[in-house]
Amino acid sequence: MRKWLLPLIPIFALALPSRGEETNAPAGERIALPPAYKNFRVIGLSQRSDDQSLRAILGNDVAVEAARAGKTNPWPNGAILAKLVWKQKQSAQFPAATIPDAFSSVAFMIKDDAKYAATAGWGWGEWVGLQQKPYDKAGFARECVACHSTVKDQDWVFTRPGELP
Amino acid sequence: MRKWLLPLIPIFALALPSRGEETNAPAGERIALPPAYKNFRVIGLSQRSDDQSLRAILGNDVAVEAARAGKTNPWPNGAILAKLVWKQKQSAQFPAATIPDAFSSVAFMIKDDAKYAATAGWGWGEWVGLQQKPYDKAGFARECVACHSTVKDQDWVFTRPGELP
Fold first, then answer.
1. A85 HSE (CA, 13 A, CB side)
2. What is the pTM of this model?
3. Closest to B158 (Cβ–Cβ): which among A38, A94, A160?
4. CB pairs under 8 A, 24+ apart, for B84-87?
5. Which helix (H) or strand (E) holds B41?
6. CB contact under 8 A, A56 and B56
7. ipTM of the predicted structure?
8. CATH number attached to the domain at B21-154
9. A residues 19..48 contacting B (CB < 8 A)
10. Where does chain A show beta strands of DSSP type E?
11. Closest by Cβ to A49, choosing from B40, B84, B96
């Protein structure tokens, strides 16, 4: 490398997207990976018999406040829902329990009814596996919307917040 | 009420335990309801076929940091695990999904190997239903320890933290 290029490296580095956003950065209907999602709080959970998986549905502060206040139809702009998916397995120590096996994916819905007007008011994204490979199939968001259209009367969200004391 | 008693009311009120701690306050082997548990972060989840329930296992900051660092054998003192339990039902909108129905209970394990030396180094407690009625059967903690003895080689905790990116 020629010496005169070296001072440019730190500047260029600042412009790089952070880990996990390399190929699924905001562009058109795509969203960026919300960086803090592992610290979101729990809103719901599910088990799926069709693909043998367990899912935790977490929310950012805006989403959790809306869920606890019962104000989820519509969800407020700024709400982010994260669905963490694990393959399931039987517990060796407690055979009646089904527990997480390998991590599968994390999917997001980000509410912004202006920015994402073309996709039902939500931004949609999914990252697969521990490497968080973006699921960037063409038309991905429209595929999400098509499936979620069965719950358009509850603002396109399947998850109903779990009852809490 | 005699007038001279009135000024005492605010002082007395300060000494009252907060909601949910009335009859299960620390005394011997009992623990108090950790007030912030709904804001704990997710560590694991499970579905139980024996009682048709879904469970989210949450942790306080000490527990979550230990889980993410893989330092859970033993769990550090100060770790609190909260197990939120819902009865399960089939989703009407997505029949392959099992989702939470009514809230059942919340159970806790609080690690303090000195304070709770008599009960495997953990404080144990459970509160039932939306009213959070303390489950205060005599010998409750020893019953917990007896069941959890099958996992004493993993510090008496069934939950293994879910794999995360």
1. 18
2. 0.84
3. A94
4. B84/A42, B84/A162, B84/A164, B84/B37, B84/B55, B84/B56, B84/B57, B84/B58, B85/B53, B85/B54, B85/B55, B86/A45, B86/A162, B86/A163, B86/B53, B86/B54, B86/B55, B87/B52, B87/B53
5. strand B41-48
6. yes
7. 0.83
8. 3.50.70.20
9. 20, 38-42, 44-48
10. 41-48, 53-59, 80-90, 97-111, 122-128, 133-134
11. B96
CB contact under 8 A, A93 and B38: no
What are the φ and ψ backbone dihedral angles of A64, each rounded to 5 degrees?
Answer: -65, -40
At A10-53, the pLDDT tens digits run 443 333 334 333 344 344 568 999 999 999 999 999 999 999 99
Beta strands in B49-146 (DSSP E): 53-59, 80-90, 97-111, 122-128, 133-134
Given CB atoms, is B84 within the 8 Å cutoff of chain A? yes
Q: What is the pLDDT of residue A28?
A: 56
pLDDT for the residue numbered B56:
98
Q: How far is B25 from chain A (nearest CA, A)?
A: 18
Residues of chain A in contact with residue B48, where contact means CB-CB under 8 angstroms, are 96-98
Q: Chain A contact for B50, CB < 8 A?
A: yes
Nearest to B100 among A20, A44, A106 (CB): A44
